[in-house]
Each structure stands twice: as C-alpha cells, then as structure tokens.
C-alpha cells in the first residue's frame, strides 16, 4: 500500500495568460502608437475634382477595417473620450500631408463636441478653420442640440465648418439639421444603395437635394459603389459624393498626394 504522502500529486493544467481586459487593451492602444488615420476622398460630382476627405481611424496590427469594436471596447472601459481625442489628434497630424485645398471631415460624438478640450485641440493644429469640418455622427437629444449649437458658435465664427451625418436615418434628424444649419449634410450608404432602382430612395434624395439647397448646405452622397448609383445621384442635382467607386480610404500619403490631380 502506498503511503498517502508518497502518492503522486495531480498536476495542474498548464496555465494560460488571462485575456486582456478592455481597459488594458485600450491603454495599450493609447500609449503604443497604434492609431493610424485613413482618408477617403470626397468628390465634386460636377467636375470630378476631389474637394475634401473624411478621416477614418485605423489600428496598427488590426487586420480588419472596422474600428467600431475598438470604440465600443473603449466605451465599456470608460475610455471612449480618451480614444476619440487620440483619433482626432492622429487625424489632425496626418492632415498636414494632404493637398492644401482639401477640407477634412472629422467624426465627433456629441460628448466630445461639447468637451471644453476640443477648441484648444483644433486651435493647436496646423489645419486651418476653413478646412476643418466637425462631422456629427450620432443622433442628438434636444438638450444636446441646444448645447452644441451654443458651444460651436464661436468656432463657426472662426470658420470651422459643421457637418451632419446619417441625414434621414433617425426620426428627428431633419428637424435637428434645420436647427443646426450645417455646412455639409451627408446621406449614408443605407439610403444610397439601390437609389437607381428604388423610387423611395430616389424620392428621398430628391427631397434632400432641395432641402440642402434651401439651407445653403453641400449635400454629400456616401457609399456610392456603382456607376448606376452615381448617375442617379447626379441626376438629382447632388453635387458631392464619396464611396468605393470614387476612392477607398487609404493610409498612404502617396495616394493622398494624387487627389489634387483628380
């Protein structure tokens, strides 16, 4: 009989390192220089010239093109503000390599738009106010609407432009656009896809073209992917567009340099 002390002890299974918490991973991103900026051209549909770009955040070493999961993880870790400001700093830094006639649309949430650090960040950048577009990308509450109009008034007097994304995609978006009176209004891919064959999308685009014209705003059709969609958008009098057909987002300054030639 084997003495209890002489029995072999069961071996623990090999330990595996714990998965990084969202806070730890986002912290690594913020401190590790992992943020990149891609720009996508925005084209004047009457001349074919590139007039502006939209900035998109990319993450070094991430094989996907969708950054939403990182921003969602940052929100879970209560680091959403920090990541959004880091993305803005990256975009403003990269913008110095763009052709000087292009405006730059910077995505901002209502919370960051209202943050007192935003004006200082913009003023400290090399991007002039007339080339800076703050593009609101989320639905607003009525309280946010009033506050944003007030906070942005001094910046807009300096020449900073205001853009509103996802026009028509939520119930109060048209009313909010009317009150904010943005310089740029964007119709997203969800309403542009199939605009050449879907009469309801076509009618909405026609109505938005007239609405933007009365406001004195530039209407941008996003997500143009086919020649038929481009022809339909042009037929409605929409004068600006972006999408894979016109140019994909790219992180390459060599690509950016050619946009003044389009």
Question: What value does the average pLDDT take?
Answer: 88
Report the structural category. Answer: alpha/beta
Quickly give the CATH architecture. Alpha-Beta Barrel
Q: Give the full name of the CATH homologous superfamily.
A: EAL domain
Q: Span between N and C termini?
A: 88 Å
- CATH C-level class is Alpha Beta
CATH topology: TIM Barrel
Outline the secondary-structure elements.
Elements: H1 22-31, E1 35-44, E2 50-59, H2 68-76, H3 80-94, E3 103-108, H4 110-113, H5 117-123, E4 132-136, H6 142-157, E5 161-164, H7 173-180, E6 184-187, H8 189-192, H9 199-215, E7 218-221, H10 227-235, E8 240-241, H11 253-257
Parallel strand pairs: 2-3, 3-4, 4-5, 5-6, 6-7, 7-8
Antiparallel strand pairs: 1-2, 1-8
Helix pairs in contact: 2-3
For the structure shown, list the relevant keywords:
alpha/beta; TIM Barrel; 17% strand; disordered N terminus; EAL_sf; cyclic-guanylate-specific phosphodiesterase activity; EAL domain-containing protein; EAL_dom
Give a written overview of the molecule.
This protein has 262 residues and is of the alpha/beta class. It has one domain (34-261): EAL domain (TIM Barrel). Helices cover 40% and strands 17% of the residues. The protein is built from eleven helices and eight strands. The chain has an eight-stranded mixed barrel. It is globular, with a radius of gyration of 23 Å. Mean pLDDT is 88; it is low at 1-10 and 13-19.
